[in-house]
Input
Amino acid sequence: MSQPLVIFDFDGVLVDSETLSNQVLSLVLTELGVPLTPVECHARFTGMKLARVRQTVETESASPLSDRFEEMIRKQTRARMVPELQAVPGAADLLTGFTQPRCIASNSSHDWIRMALDATEMRHHFEDQTLFSAADVAEGKPAPDLFLHAASTMDYDPARCVVVEDSILGVTGAVAAGMTVFGFAGASHIQPGHEDVLREIGAVATFDDLSLLPEMLAAL
Output
């Protein structure tokens, strides 16, 4: 494959945010009367956009969440996640020398992507027009819509795209979009056996060190 478009997921691939985000989600849900631990939030909601989290919780509890849910998440995110957020090890070094066409496709909001890139000093590696959010499409991951939207906007055929994903939802969506998927397992939230799961659902390879990505791309 000659010079593919590399589509990076964001949380858990470039920024090590999943552990923090599940702690925030647990805190807010518990305050709103839905007591879930960070471990439970990780198992059930990792990779979901916030609107789907709300829908899932409301369906299972048969009760609406407070209208303040999203604002509480945003407030806790600004107060805690941004100051504590770290890049995934190797992300900044990878992007510094990365010559491949690249973009980000995330179920997170545009505000969060930009805020987190600023917090980890990686914003200069991505033009604004290469940042894609689930807010841009009708259905986020695991639907293929976001990946297809990113490829179309970047003027790439899906077959010439390589997606770097850490979540089951993301790998599922990228496979459905007809793209090559590398499953990443190098962030702090990854549990033993996760790489096996990602391969089973369609990742052509898995890795836990971002410095290996250029070599993997060259081998395609």
In short: Residues 2 and 95 are 19 Å apart (CA to CA). The chain has two domains: 5-17+85-218, 18-84.
